[in-house]
Amino acid sequence: MAQGTVQVTHTGTSRWRRRTGEYASLAAALEAAADGDVLTVAPGTYRENLVVQRAVTLRGPEGARGSVRIAPVDGVPLTVRASAVVQDLHVEGQDGAAPAVLVEEGTPELLDLRVVTRSASGIEVRGSARPTVRRCTVDNPAGVGIAVLDGGGGVFEECEVVSAGQAGVAVRSGAHPRLERCRIHHAAGSGLTATGDGSALEAVGCEVYEVRGSGVQITGRATAHLTDCDVHRTTADGVTLDTDAVLTLADCRIHDIPENAVDLRSRSVLTLTRTSVRQFGRNGLSVWDPGTRVDANQCEIFDSTGDYPAVWVSDGATAVLDSCRVHDVPDALFVLDRGSRADVVDSDLSQVRNTAVSVSDGATAQLDDCRIRDAATGAWFRDHGSGGTLNNCTLDGNRTGVIVTKGADPTIERCTVDSPTEAGVYVSAGGRGSFVNCRVTGSAGYGFHVIDGCRTTLRRCRTERCARGGYEFADGGPDTAHDSGPLVEDCTSDESGAPTPPTPPQPVVQTVGQSPGGLLGSIPGQRSTEQEPLIAGIGPQEPARTSKAVLGELDALVGLDSVKREVRALTDMIEVGRRRQRAGLKAASVKRHLVFTGSPGTGKTTVARLYGEILASLGVLEKGHLVEVSRVDLVGEHIGSTAIRTQEAFQRAHGGVLFIDEAYALSPEDAGRDFGKEAIDTLVKLMEDQRDSVVVIVAGYTAEMERFLSVNPGVASRFSRTITFGDYGPEELLRIVEQQADEHEYRLAPGAAEALTKYFTAIPKGPAFGNGRTARQTFEAMVERHASRVAQLAETSKDDLTLLYAEDLPELP
């Protein structure tokens, strides 16, 4: 057969009608062919727009796959309008407004086609067409890989979309294809997308990966069913459902997703069965809006790479987890907003860094026959209207089993809290809750710890082997209502008989607050029998200042221009992050731990105090108070005591800032067997475990702090940035003295300011020089010398009592 010719084998019912002819063009061969004829195309490039309108077979020569190129200048290279067989062709298109292969009618078979094109779509199926497409490859960096539109259907088997400028596979306008064992990757849009009434997509054994949009996107009342599919390595969410979409995932795997693994909104419904979700950067399941629902059965959600809850249910949505496992995540299940609900049955929540179950803002959660293990908090019912039921659940090895705060009122029945490291049950800040037939065993703190006069109900509860006592009730002090306090019926302990609430007022114990972005910190330390300073005072506290007011005080400090810019940049990042979270967007991760370097007296402690107050005003920290420590406060005299001291300091700083001055002293250059390393190791761990409840600032001389940060590989990674406090110049030291004078109602006499500037220029800047501290000491010395001078006067005027002269300056050291 000659190059560039088409051989047509004409067939018929009678042997005498069978014949073979050769044609110079594909168009001529197709014109001459009848139903059942076979057109064999010789190798070559055909610049023709083919239209197949009869049930013929059109194929390339055997053993020379890809040798026939259909490549017209424009238009649709190959149109199929009959139940034909098209095989072993290489199709190229250049028309951005037209598909490369268009199937409009019939039930054709497209076999082993390679479509390399820059068209609107690589393969497009429309209308009544129901093709079978096998082993075809589409490479279309300009448009959609495969498009099925306008009621079209068909089966795609073992096909591959190797690139697409838009979606890999797009289903619209009532189309309903089936994909079997297909691969879709390197798409600039979603991997699989279906939208519109009546649109339906079925995929079995398919793989979607390396796409810049969502792996699977179902919207606008479309439906989809995926079985045994893999979705991974996307840029956006793994699976997205919106506006009455319906999707079923069975035996699927969704992993290596930087955003939400699955995101549902606007009355969408998702059913997952035996599906795994892992290595996701935001939420594993993110469920929003009234009418939106997810049902997960025998699924596993684990190995989060971000700082977000594994399952997020909000704005009136519903989630049902049955026989599921959620583990190795920052938080397991967050249910927020009135009307939102989560039902969890026979499921395991374990290895949770913060909170396994959090219920807030009027939401409801019901857990039956579940197991919660190795979490900072097992279940936290946070505020008024939030509640639900824990029934026949086991909470094992958590820091705290159940927390109830701020008017929340759950029912906890027949649950066991085993081996909590702080408290089995903790109720504070107006929390309520009913605990019926519950048991707390092996607590390192109290079994049931109820403070603030909370109206909690305990019926037929039991505590065993609780280190600090089975039951502890502390009311809210003299302002607490007389009829407040827990209701206790038929409760027992292995230490004593039934507990009774106390009658005399007892000191307020620190209450629990909410940490930033919904991620939770640790439980407050338990009350000791020894007298300890209270973290929260009994009396009324001053109202917290706004961040604007605190920043105003920061701006009023002398000098520190670069420091002010750094703090403002951090504040702006945190504030914008909060706004993005409220808008449902991903917030940039901001590590709040800081390193302050510079000489003594440059304002590091003052700025640390203001920084804590700013974070509290933004809701990032619960209180924002400053706890200042140094080596002597953290390092003990014998093995083990250092870790205890460090933990105690961390606990005092809960909800605020831990400021470690001269932190480099924890790691002296000739450390040997020094216990400072134990303090550093403990700090590194606590900074990770309680990263949302305590901000750590380490401070000291610049060179020494650089050495300190290099000692432990985990230390440097815990701090977001280093802020350098430069030395004050003579003019700035003068301004500090002027501020001190004004505050204490003194004035500088004429010539005193110039004398102070010369004094601060000449003063030695050795190790004893204290910058701002030196300025304050200079002012105090001037006041003393002024007093000695004025005391000798028989009569004094107001000027005599207020004016500081150059002669009042002390001698240079």
Automatic annotation (TrEMBL):
AAA+ ATPase domain: residues covered: 590-729
Swiss-Prot/TrEMBL keywords: ATP-binding, Nucleotide-binding, Repeat
Matching InterPro entries: AAA+_ATPase, AAA_lid_6, ATPase_AAA_core, Beta_helix, Carb-bd_sugar_hydrolysis-dom, CbxX/CfxQ, CbxX/CfxQ_RuBisCO_ESX, P-loop_NTPase
CDD domains attached to this UniProt entry: AAA
A Pfam entry, by short name: AAA
Region of interest (Disordered), ranges: 472-532
Domain Carbohydrate-binding/sugar hydrolysis stretches: 41-172, 313-474
Domain of life (superkingdom): Bacteria
PANTHER family, sorted: AAA-TYPE ATPASE FAMILY PROTEIN / ANKYRIN REPEAT FAMILY PROTEIN, AAA-TYPE ATPASE FAMILY PROTEIN _ ANKYRIN REPEAT FAMILY PROTEIN
Sequence similarity: Belongs to the CbxX/CfxQ family.
Protein name: Right-handed parallel beta-helix repeat-containing protein
Organism from which the protein derives: Streptomyces lancefieldiae
